[in-house]
What we know:
Elements: H1 3-26, E1 30-32, E2 41-44, E3 47-50, E4 53-57, E5 60-64, E6 80-84, E7 88-92, E8 98-107, E9 117-126, E10 131-139, E11 143-146, E12 154-159, E13 177-187, H2 193-221
Antiparallel strand pairs: 1-13, 2-5, 3-4, 4-7, 5-6, 6-13, 7-12, 8-11, 8-13, 9-10, 9-12
Helix pairs in contact: 1-2
Amino acid sequence: MTIGLFRHWVAGMVLALAASVAGGGQANAAVVTFNEVHAFECSFNTSMNHGGMTFSSTWSTCYYAPEDPADFPTPITSSVMAVGYGDLLMTRDDSSAFTLNSVDLAFGPFEHGGLLTDTTTVTGFFAGGGSISSQFTVGYGFQTFNFGPAWTNLASVTFGALETNRTLDIFTDNSQYLGLDNITYDGAAVPEPGVWAMMLLGFGGMGALLRRSRRQIRAAAA
């Protein structure tokens, strides 16, 4: 193998390994749907586990199912979670880092005082420190919101209470909940065992070919 061909082979191997590593990270893709809930129920100041994630609220959390939608303001075709009067904290069950890809958001239950839209701030806290935030406008009916490539290596994510709700009296004013569904996330992009084996085999082959090329060059120069 000539040096030129060797360099092309190395470049191809590097690209293949990079693609394999990327594929290994995507193998951990998951989605939180809440579909295991089949009836209306509410809880206060508790932690819930769904789809590999732990959810903790500072006030009220309710579930709504197609079989029992209760007072959810729009028709729903799958079970959803709604959070009122406070923020919702989301972490991995095993406390490992993750990448947040997308989430479906909408108004939750009860009256909304004539509002057609409101805003929520979603904040991601990086495993190594620091944070990132995005503000989304939500309304009646679920809409999918996507997160960019910067939303990776997260230790936790907070879904903030609807902004207008922060100024309301919870006992006398119209109350607003933030509805959530279809939270998609990936685990950290760590190669799987098969990918590690491929990488080691590839680097071993690269070393052997490099040694062979050096011997050929020395023999030609003799």
